[in-house]
Design goal:
By secondary structure, the protein is of the alpha/beta class. The protein has 2 domains: about 130 residues, 3-Layer(aba) Sandwich (Rossmann fold); about 70 residues, Arc Repressor Mutant, subunit A (Orthogonal Bundle), CATH 1.10.10.10. The protein is about 50% helix and about 15% strand. The chain contains 10 helices and 6 strands; from the N terminus they run βαβαβαβαβαβααααα. It has a 6-stranded parallel sheet, with helices on both faces. Helix 7 crosses helix 9. The longest helix is centred in the C-terminal third of the chain and has 14 residues. The chain is elongated.
Length: about 220
């Protein structure tokens, strides 16, 4: 796995590089600005870009825009976005698009090395990883309480973990139930939310959007 890190804080940037190299991963370049990130993408053709949301010069959304440009230049690159705190607009867009190979984590998660690496590998493998705190804050802000009235408490637990990007096996491990039980709960969630099989839509994504009180965007 070839990785580029884009982070304007030199201590965090080099700390991340040391952490990943200690895990046997190949950090091919580090960048302190969006332009440096894109140069590294062109030069090294990495598999994964770890990108800070807020970067110079204005420290608003330069990192997000650079990540989008990186994916345009190198289709299929996995992007793991890091933020000091929840950025609702970007998190909402990430979930609404249901995009594969994308992750959104709070920087504090980096200190929990096992969780951080699990999210990194999930994104690199084609999945989605969303910080549990991001999910919790989106829920607190946007989900209508009656949207999930038909769901049982267990079904809500399963759906919450789906919102974080966990697959069936990981959900089963978290809830200490069998994978078959997870599969059955997901089937009941789809049925209660009126989500029939449809090749044009990802039912997991739509169920999560309903859970968060969002609506699907183009994807």
């Amino acid at each position: 796995m070839r990785i580029v890190i884009a982070e304007d804080d030199p201590l965090l940037r080099e700390g991340l590089a040391l952490l990943l190299r200690a895990e046997g991963l190949e950090v091919v370049a580090t960048a302190g600005t969006p332009d440096e990130l894109l140069t590294a993408i062109d030069q090294y053709e990495p598999d994964v870009a770890i990108v800070d949301v807020r970067m110079p010069p204005t420290h608003t959304d330069e990192g997000v825009r650079a990540a989008a440009e990186a994916r345009r230049r190198r289709p299929g690159i996995a992007v793991l976005v890091l933020s000091a705190y929840v950025e609702p607009a970007f998190a909402t867009d990430l979930l609404a698009r249901g995009s594969a190979r994308l992750g959104y984590l709070l920087k504090e998660r980096v200190g929990r090395v096992e969780e951080f690496l699990t999210a990194l590998y999930r994104v690199a493998g084609g999945g989605t990883a969303v910080d549990p705190e991001v999910v919790a804050q989106l829920l607190a802000r946007s989900r209508p309480d009656d949207a999930l009235a038909p769901l049982s408490p267990r079904e809500r637990e399963v759906l919450a973990l789906m919102a974080e990007g966990l697959g069936n096996a990981a959900i089963a491990e978290k809830l200490v139930i069998t994978e078959g039980s997870v599969h059955k709960n997901i089937g009941r969630i789809f049925a209660k939310l009126g989500l029939a099989p449809d090749d044009r839509a990802d039912r997991r994504v739509i169920a999560v959007l309903r859970y968060l009180g969002l609506t699907p965007g183009p994807g």
